Amino acid sequence: MSEDVIRPRPVVDPDLPEDQREEVRRKAESPPLFSPRGGGEVLTRLVRIRECGVHLFGVGFTTALALLTAGWYLGMVITSISLVAYVAAMACRRDTRPATRAAGVLVGAGTIAFAPAWLTDTLPQDPFPGMPWVLFGLLVITAVADTLTTGAPGRAGERYREHVVLPDDLSGGDHALLLEVQHVIDLVDGARDALGGEALDTDRALAVLREEEWRIASLLARQRELRRAHLRRWQSAVSPRVREALKPQREHLHAVAEAVRSRVAQISEYGRLVRGAAAAHREWEQCQEAVDSTAEYADHLASASFLGARSAEVSELAATAAIARRVRDERVEQVLLVGCRLVASSEPDDTGAPGTAGPDGTEAEGPGLAVRG
Questions:
Q1: Which of 63, 144, 161, 281 is most buried, judged by most C-beta within 10 A?
Q2: CA 196: distance to chain centroid?
């Protein structure tokens, strides 16, 4: 399978308290929360406030320009459409609070219900010029309430960003290294349930492995950043002398990569030994299970041992069957004898009639009796 399908899990700093690790792990499962290291903007509450300010400024400036140039009617169209569009977008977002969504829907529905009154000139042609600004004020209130109550995190939610390494923080070629470490961690965790914590001191082993996982993940994330920076410098170098000055950076990156691979290989070797110990333990369990269950089979054999000796009852049954066969044979012989007599008595006479002999003294064909034994 490709690296796009098999990706390592997010790695959380093991030095954090358990409750904070669980919190960071939950947040790491939400991709929009943490931005990739080295770039990208997180959709925090400050970002939403900035976007809200830009949106309101655009609508207010357009409304003021429409009132100055085209009058009340165009200003009402702009503010009404802006308010209904914002409420519809807010209602479709999953992070909007239910109370804010309900209030926004009421404001949007009231605006739509009020629209026919001025679209059909039911209102006076020249109402007070503050009507568009009333709708704009409702838009401001709705947007500010939505921004302040939204589920987007503030900067405080980013305080754990340095305590988690996401798969996107690593180069695609480094995923296999971290996956191998996490595979060994899962293997040791499974061996703890199979062998018990005292057999291999799996609790201490897991603590060491998680510490190694965090170190390797942090190194690989930093390696990705430095490798990209080195590549940018190498590509923008204006002379061979600059590239010559950049060679130590490449050598350092190569040395770090080799060190990480060496440590991962050491961890893999430990995982191989744990796998062998778990297999040996399973083999011992199966052998012990076979030994313990052999007594049941021995009892089963003992219960069938009487079948090897001759049974008087079975011998009596065999004698009875032999007697019955002799009786059957005698009855068959009697039937055959009677049949022969019937055949002889029905032989044809001199005239060729049935039951008598022919003129030459031989038997003539006549009706016979088929007797089956």
A1: 63
A2: 28
CA atoms of 343 and 369, how far apart (whole Å): 6
Instruction: For residue range 132-183, list pLDDT tens digits in order.
Output: 788 888 888 888 888 777 755 444 445 566 788 888 888 888 899 999 999 9
Question: Computed over its alpha carbons, how large is the radius of gyration of the chain?
Answer: 49
In angstroms, the Cα distances linking 273 to 277, 278, 280 are 6, 9, 10
Q: How far is CA 91 from the centre of its chain?
A: 31
Strand 164-165 and strand 11-12: the pairing is antiparallel
Under-70 pLDDT residues of the chain: 1-5, 28-45, 47, 95, 116-129, 151-161, 194-200, 306-314, 317, 335, 338-339, 341-343, 345-373
> The pTM is what?
0.52
Beta pairing partners, 11: 165
DSSP string over 301-342: HHHTGGGGS--HHHHHHHHHHHHHHHHHHHHHHHHHHHHHHH
DSSP 62-121: HHHHHHHHT-HHHHHHHHHHHHHHHHHHHHH-TTS-HHHHHHHHHHHHHHHHHHHHHHTT
Instruction: Record the tokens describing residue 346, joined without a space.
Output: 């029905």
> For position 84, what pLDDT does the model report?
83
Determine the Cα–Cα distance for residues 118 and 336; give it in Å rounded to an integer: 123
**Beta carbons of 319 and 354 less than 8 angstroms apart:** no
- The two most distant CA atoms of the chain are separated, in Å, by 151
pLDDT tens digits, residue range 166-176?
Answer: 888 888 888 99
